[in-house]
Amino acid sequence: MRVRPFTSRGYLVSLLVGLGAWGVVAAVAVGIGGRLWAWESAAQMRDALNLRLEAVLTASVVGAALALAGLAFQALLRNPLAEPYILGVSGGAGLGFILSYLFLSIFWAPLLGFAGALATVAIVYTVAQRRGRIEPYTLLLSGVILNAFYGAAIMLLTALVSPAKRGDIAVWMMGNIGAFGPQWELVGVVGAMAVGAAALFAVLAKGFNLVAVGEDAAGAMGVNVGRLRIVTFAAASLVTGASVTLAGPIGFVGLICPHLLRMVLGPDHRRLVPAALFFGAAFLVLADLAACLWEGAGNRALPVGVLTAMCGGPFFIYLLRTRWRRTAEIQ
Amino acid sequence: MRVSVFHLVLLAGLAAIGATGCTDAAPSATPGAEGKPLRILSLTPNVTEILFAMGLGDRVVGRSNYCTYPPEAASVPAVGDTLQLNLQEVIRLQPTIAFLITRRTEVPRRLEGLGVRTVPLESDRMDQMLQAIRTIGLETGRADAAQALLARLRADLEAVRGRVAGLPRAKVLFAFPMTVGSARIMVAGRGTFVDDLLGVAGAENAYPEAADWPSIGPQQVVALAPQVVIINATGEDAPPDRAEAIRRAWDSLPSVPAVAAGRVHVLTEAYLTIPGPRIGQAARLLAETIHPDVKGSGALRLKAPDPLAAPQERKP
Fold this sequence. Notes:
The complex is a heterodimer. By secondary structure, chain A is mainly alpha-helical. In chain A, 79% of the residues lie in helices and 1% in strands.
């Protein structure tokens, strides 16, 4: 591990650098995605600016939430393949959201989404736990199986509802940024939750580092591993559920972002947590920009969730062949 | 895109293109005329509506799940839809003839395999729909009823056309409500039945391209700059609070002329997109919405000669 002095001034500077980098990416995405130079009137330009601002902020808060949740899951489960989407957390949130949308009201959807996410983590965790330890294979497999179960449940629902709603659900399941009509309040709430989770994880970062070495060692160093787990899982599920409410299940952002950051910054979670906040945000903004440019070039619109999943699949295989092996060998 | 297919199946088979193109061929057998019992299976809502309008409602023995208009149709046994057809139920109902609008060629094949004469129809465009009525008349031995219905529909359309003649043709965007979690709305492209209706109602479709039912985002709406927006909110979207929410979502696009002028209209009538016997009503409602001064000036029910006869024969 590289040893670098960890000062509060250095921390602040790196926060500002991250914020600045995200700001640049966001500004570029607003300008290019909105083709702000090409409009005939100032009024049209203002509308396009508004639309792009909202889309970029939506992508930012969703990307940040998912990257943070992925980082936290990987840290606490000590598994490089853990991720909200793969663990079924997104699927659980999705099922809760769709149930609420179909049978209750859209008003309760965020709450049920969160409940679905939390229930999933609880199930996966309980199934994978044996004598106080987590079995990595069981953990991943139970997540995959739960995901398949949720997929089947959602398909069952789609088969039973009217074709119009069937279409809605199909589109929603692809993972989309933005809505027709403003939803600034929801973006604000999810954004606040993502920043809150980042702050919480920043406080817990030292605990993450110790757990990564070993749960017994962490316990010996005075970390209350049980409480750390519960707080982290609850927070990660909450932000995952919130992001699913806002954009549908967007996969693999929580896998790709933390790993890319670890390759560059090393394993120290005190660095990784703030980095995940800004990098996750910028990552999904770029993915959304790609989808936006693709559509701007006269093609059919591309759901951003499909795009990230297409990138994430190969990345998962790559991790499976490299990092997973190494960790498995260590154990 | 999948969503459009789903929507269009519901909305009366707008998306359908008859697979075999045999609608123009003269029918070899007319079961109704031969004295054989006429037992009709209708697998598309607008066809069911046409059959009832032609007085053949009592001959319809089976229908699709979505054929719920006129209300009497709901009491006819349902056999699923063209995606999921309950063949056992079809066998039980013993239809002699089936009408349907679908892209799926295996559905007519299965039905023919059961010995049911199967007639695929088209109703993507206005003239195709009128041709479908004529085909149904020939196939059921009710050519006179078909002619009467056609004459009535043409008179209705012509009355609307006459009323809006000479009025400025506004740029109108016809859309379905936004769906949950998607930034896109489905709009009527050139080459749809609704596009034809807009023409009758004295409007120009704001969506300029020949497309079925494209999904567009708000940014594209800004670029299209429609003068009038008509949103067809049906079913679950029809209640007043929901319709109002749908309309309000447009307020965030003040540069759109329709928004600036308060001309975003939410219409809850489902028949606006159903190519069937209610096209006259649909055209009139559109005309009154697009040209507010037409409304109240009365007398949209002129009887006119047969102006669509010529264009209808032009089919390739």
